[in-house]
């Protein structure tokens, strides 16, 4: 039912008229002849999107893809050229630095002004002011004009107001990267609390880790067009694929992503669009009876293969045969915590390259990056040169310090193709391989990583 949606947009478009010379505006108004004096720029074109109540949706895309334009129209600060927007619930938004603030007013005055815009009465703002001031952490600057604030202080205050007005819909445009690590964690924690309270959250970020960590669902925009929707990990993979595609192959990559999205939608429908809170993985691991067994014995299950593998466009190298092996060379994908393994893959070079490095990364099912390694920290220890036709077998040794669960591995190769000194991604595989860590009833560690903790308990004598 429509009431299940907090936000729904249908065929939303925004077109700007671009005039090459100032006086062309006047000529267009006077309409001399039939000549058109402007060029059309479509910032957004025919975007349809539904956000269910209580879900968190991230919007990814390159600069200029239409992300901020979409958020502004949803919040009502920008009128669409065409299309329909419907929202249900109080919207609090952080769209840009100083958005909604009067630079001549003090921080305190702006808090009351913005609170009233959001529908709060004066006594309601009074009761929340201490919480807002505490969250913003700007001290005596609360009574200074906003024009004297740094960009970080301005966003802190805007964020503090927005998260303390009990929003039913929270819209954030790339504001989570402001401030030090402590304040960023404070923002994440508050967003998590707002989400747990049942609010709908829509935000733009260039950080894939943030989208994967916070979101139930994600959308990829490019050149004003919606390319794909799906699980955060899947959409972030497509975004990376597009972002690092060579310029001459980017349009081809766009078409490929859109075609894959349309094929997936036709096969699976839109059933899982709002259900990712309970299942966030871009690939579903096959059932494996070993996971329910107490036998800690390494094994290989041929059906335990990722369905979410994404290959970047090759730029002089091709990665193949990703697999995990024991130290003595036996292929496995059911691992035992505490043992060492080799993550192996083969690389064939199709172009000459210099200062080549190889890499690996381990992620959770939801795409959270747990850790990885590179074959060299920089040029000084990289492989100085390779020739077209060269092949290398790469093996990363790692200790399995993970608690029982399903995990995914990336593989990548970087290098320089010319004398410019610019290192590029020559090839990369997302979700190249997957593995499970078997359960161990004798271990007491919790969470994702086993830190080898010991508990010491001493009875206190009176």
From TrEMBL:
Domain of life here? Bacteria
The yes or no answer to whether the keyword Transcription regulation is present is: no
Query: Is Cell inner membrane given among the entry's keywords?
Result: no
Q: Which GO terms describe its molecular function?
A: ABC-type transporter activity; ATP binding; ATP hydrolysis activity
Offer one Pfam family short name for this entry.
Wzt_C
- CDD domains associated with the record: ABC_KpsT_Wzt, Wzt_C-like
ABC transporter domain segment(s): 24-248
Region listing for Disordered, in residue ranges: 250-302
Which PROSITE patterns does the record match to this protein?
ABC_TRANSPORTER_1 (PS00211), ABC_TRANSPORTER_2 (PS50893)
Question: What are the annotated GO cellular component locations?
Answer: membrane
Residue ranges with Low complexity bias: 262-271
Q: Which InterPro entries match?
A: AAA+_ATPase, ABC_transporter-like_ATP-bd, ABC_transporter-like_CS, ABC_transpr_TagH-like, Bact_Polysacc_Export_ATP-bd, P-loop_NTPase, Wzt_C
In what ranges is there compositional bias, type Polar residues? Answer: 279-291
Among SUPFAM superfamilies, the record links this protein to: P-loop containing nucleoside triphosphate hydrolases
What keywords were assigned to this record? ATP-binding, Nucleotide-binding, Transport
**Stated family:** Belongs to the ABC transporter superfamily.
UniProt name for this protein: Lipopolysaccharide transport system ATP-binding protein
Q: What is the lineage of its organism?
A: Bacteria, Pseudomonadati, Thermodesulfobacteriota, Desulfobulbia, Desulfobulbales
């Amino acid at each position: 039912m429509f009431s299940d949606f907090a936000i729904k947009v249908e065929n939303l478009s925004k077109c700007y008229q671009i005039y090459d010379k100032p006086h062309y505006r006047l000529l267009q108004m006077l309409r001399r002849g039939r000549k058109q004096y402007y060029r059309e720029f479509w910032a957004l074109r025919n975007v349809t999107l539904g956000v269910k109540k209580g879900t968190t949706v991230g919007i990814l895309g390159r600069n200029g893809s239409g992300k901020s334009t979409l958020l502004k129209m949803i919040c009502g600060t920008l009128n669409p050229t065409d299309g329909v927007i419907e929202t249900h619930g109080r919207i609090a938004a952080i769209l840009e630095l100083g958005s909604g603030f009067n630079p001549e007013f003090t921080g305190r005055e702006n808090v009351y002004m913005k609170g009233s815009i959001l529908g709060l009465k004066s006594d309601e703002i009074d009761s929340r002011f201490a919480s807002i001031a505490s969250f913003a952490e700007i001290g005596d600057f609360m009574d200074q004009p906003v024009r004297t604030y740094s960009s970080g202080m301005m966003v802190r205050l805007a964020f503090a107001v927005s998260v303390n007005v009990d929003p039913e819909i929270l819209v954030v445009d790339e504001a989570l990267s402001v401030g030090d690590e402590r304040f960023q964690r404070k923002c994440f924690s508050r967003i998590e609390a707002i989400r747990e309270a049942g609010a709908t959250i829509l935000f733009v970020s260039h950080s894939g880790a943030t989208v994967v960590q916070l979101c139930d669902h994600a959308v990829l925009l490019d050149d004003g067009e919606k390319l794909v929707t799906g699980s955060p990990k899947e959409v972030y993979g497509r975004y990376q694929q597009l972002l690092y595609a060579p310029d001459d192959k980017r349009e081809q990559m766009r078409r490929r992503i859109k075609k894959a999205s349309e094929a997936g939608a036709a096969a699976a429908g839109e059933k899982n669009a709002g259900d990712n809170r309970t299942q966030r993985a871009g690939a579903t691991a096959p059932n494996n009876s070993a996971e329910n067994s107490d036998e800690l014995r390494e094994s290989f299950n041929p059906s335990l293969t990722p369905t979410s593998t994404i290959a970047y466009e090759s730029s002089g190298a091709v990665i193949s045969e990703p697999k995990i092996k024991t130290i003595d060379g036996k292929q496995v994908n059911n691992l035992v915590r505490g043992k060492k393994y080799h993550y192996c893959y083969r690389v064939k070079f199709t172009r000459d390259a210099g200062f080549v490095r190889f890499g690996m990364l381990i992620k959770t099912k939801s795409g959270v990056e747990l850790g990885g390694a590179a074959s060299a920290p920089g040029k000084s220890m990289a492989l100085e040169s390779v020739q077209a036709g060269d092949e290398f077998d790469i093996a990363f040794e790692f200790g399995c310090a993970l608690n029982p669960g399903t995990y995914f591995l990336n593989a990548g190769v970087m290098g320089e193709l010319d004398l410019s000194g610019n290192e590029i991604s020559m090839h990369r595989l997302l979700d190249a391989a997957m593995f499970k860590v078997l359960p161990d009833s004798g271990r007491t560690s919790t969470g994702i990583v086993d830190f080898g903790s010991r508990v010491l308990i001493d009875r206190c004598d009176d």
